[in-house]
Amino acid sequence: MDAVVTENLTKRFGGFIAVDRVNLRVPIGVIFGFLGPNGSGKTTTIRMLLGLLQPSEGRATILGFDCAAETEAIRRRAGYMSQRFSLYDELTVVENLDFYGHTYGVVGRRLAERKRFILELAGLKGREKELTRNLSGGWKQRLALGVAILHEPQVLFLDEPTAGVDPVSRRQFWELLYTQAAAGVTVFVTTHYMDEAEQCQALAFIHRGKIVAQGSPAEIKAQQMRGQVLEIACQPTAVALPILKGLALFEEVALYGARLHAVAENAAALMPRVEAALTAAGVAVQEITPIPPSLEDVFISRIR
Amino acid sequence: MTDSPIVVEADRLSRRFGPIVAVNELSLTVARGEIFGLIGPDGAGKTTVLRLLAAVMPPSSGQARVLGFDIRHQAERIRQAIGYMPQKFSLYADLTVIENLNFFADLFNVRGARRHQRIAELLAFSRLAEFTERRAAALSGGMQKKLALACALIHNPQVIFLDEPTTGVDPISRREFWDILSSLHVQGATIIVSTPYMDEAERCSRVGLMYEGRIAECDTPDGLRRLTPGELLAVWTPQVMQARRIAAALPGVLEVQTYGDLLHVFVHDAAAIAPQLAQALAAAGVPVTEIKRAQPRVEEAFISLIVGRRAAT
Prior knowledge:
The complex is a heterodimer of chains A (304) and B (313). With 304 residues, chain A is α/β, with parallel strands linked by helices. Chain A is 36% helix and 29% strand. The mean pLDDT of chain A is 91. Chain B has 313 residues and is of the alpha/beta class. Helix content of chain B is 36%, strand content 28%. Chain B is built from ten helices and 14 strands. Chain B has helices at residues 46-53, 75-81, 97-107, 112-125, 141-152, 171-186, 221-225, 240-249, 270-283, 298-312; strands at 6-17, 20-31, 35-39, 61-66, 69-70, 82-85, 159-163, 190-195, 206-211, 214-219, 231-236, 253-259, 262-267, 290-293. In chain B, the strands form three sheets. A six-stranded mixed β-sheet of chain B has the order 6-7-8-3-9-10, with helices on both faces. Chain B has a four-stranded antiparallel β-sheet with strand order 2-1-4-5, covered by helices on one side. In chain B, strands 12-13-11-14 form a four-stranded antiparallel β-sheet, with helices on one face. In chain B, β4 (61-66) and β5 (69-70) form a beta hairpin. In chain B, α3 (97-107) runs parallel beside α5. The radius of gyration of chain B is 23 Å and the shape is elongated.
C-alpha cells in the first residue's frame, strides 16, 4: 500500500481548472516534494487530500482511505502544517500544545508524553512558558511542526513550511523531517524553493494544475531535462553573454557570476563552436564543461 | 558624479531603531560593473542597508558614499542618480502599465523624445509591451516586479539597488528577472541586489553574507564555498538514511548533510576517505550509485559560518 494515491484528481472552480487529472503515488516513509509556482494548484491538491474540498473528478486515498468519503479516518492519520503556522501568538508554547492536543483528542497521560517528546524534539525545552509571539521564526516553525505531529499522524502535510526562516533553522527543520521519515512517517511537503526540492526523495512538479515531471531528483535530472547544460568559465562575461546569445544555438544563456550557463539539445557537440566564437571576440575562455542540470533548469525546460 | 571605479563605499555604517540594531558597523565597497548580492535570512538587515545606501533613510552613525555623493548631505543627488526598487514597490495599482511609466518619467524629469524612446526600450526589455493598457493591480506578481524595475530604470541610472526583487515570484519569472539583470550588467550597470535565496548567490559576481546586521563574509561565490570545513564527497544512494548513519560514524568525517538521494560528506581528506566510505557502505549492504568529489553549496558555507560564530560566542 502507498501513503498517498491520486487518480485523475481534478478540481474545477467554475470554468477554471485548478487541478487537472493529477496522478500521484507516494510510498510510505518517504519525503515527497510537491513543487510548483504560486497558484499552480499545490494548496488545492492538499485541501482535497485532507478532505476539506470535494474533487470535481477522480479520487484520492491516504493509506487506503478515501479522502472525500472517509474524512474521520483521514483526520486521525494526517497531520497538517499550514504556511502561516496557525499558532496562537498570545498563548505560551505549552498552551499551544495543550490547545491542539485537546482539539485532536490527545489528552491525559498521552498528551503529557507527547508534549515531552515534542519539546525535546523541537529543542523547545526550557521555553515552555514563553509567549509564542516572542519566538524567532525558526522556533515558531518547529513548534508548528510539533503541533502538527501531536496526534502521531502517519502522513504529514506541510504547506511551504520554510518561507522566511534562516538557513540554519531551515537545516534543523529538515533534520526533523528526516527523523520523522526514518520513523516511518510519510512527509508530503510543498515548496517553491527549487533548492529545497533537492532535499526530497521523490518529487512531482505541478504547473497550471498539471503534473509536468515526477520521480527522484536524480531520475528527473537524468531523464526529464530537455537539453544539456554547458558551464562556461570565461572573462569578461559581459562580453561573452551577448555573443553566445547571438549565436542562436542555445535555448537559454544565463549569467552565473563569473560563469555562463548555456542550454541546448546536444550541447556538448557545440563546445568547439562556443570556444571559437568567444576566442575570436577576445574573450578568455578558462573552461567549458557539461554540468548536471539543477531542478530549476529541468522545471523550466519542461514548461517552456 | 565621478568616474572612480568605486561606486559604493560604506564605512562602519549603523542604524538603530530604538533598542534594535538593524545594521551594525557595516563596511562595504562595490566596484563599477559588479553584480553585488546581499544575501541573508529575513531580519538580517538587508533592507535597511539598501535604504541607507539609497539615501532614503539616514544612518545612526558611520558614513557612506554612492557615486561619490555623501548619503547624509547629498541625499537628493543620490536619489536622482540611482535606481532604487524597494521590496514593497509603490506602483499605482489603479494606473495602467504605461501610466505608471509616465508617472515615474514625470518624477525624474524625463521628457519629450527621450521619454518616448526610454519607455519603448523599457517595455521591450521587460517584455511588457503587450500589456501597456493593463492596470498594475491586474498584473501577475512576476509582471508587477518587472514593471517596478522598469519604473526604477526610467532615468537610465548606472547604479541600481534592488531589494528582494525575486521573493515570492515563480521560478520562470525569477529566471526572467535574472536575465534582465544580466542584460543590465552587459550594458555596464552596477547592481546591488538583496535576496533571501541562497542559490541566487551563484548569479552574483560578489556576495556579502548578511547576518545580524553585519556582513559576516564577503567574497566571490567560489571564495565563499571555500569557507566550508575540509573537502566534500558527494554520495548518491537510494538508502540515504542508512548511508548517513554509516558515514557519520566513520573517523575523519566532519559533517554529513542529506539531500533526498544525495549525501554531502565533509571530510578531512577526500582521497583517503572515499575508498573507506565505499567499503563501509558496501559492507552494510547499502547500494551506492556514485561517490565523487564535489563543490560545496553557498548555503553550506553560510551554515558553517553561522554555526562557527555561534559556537565562538
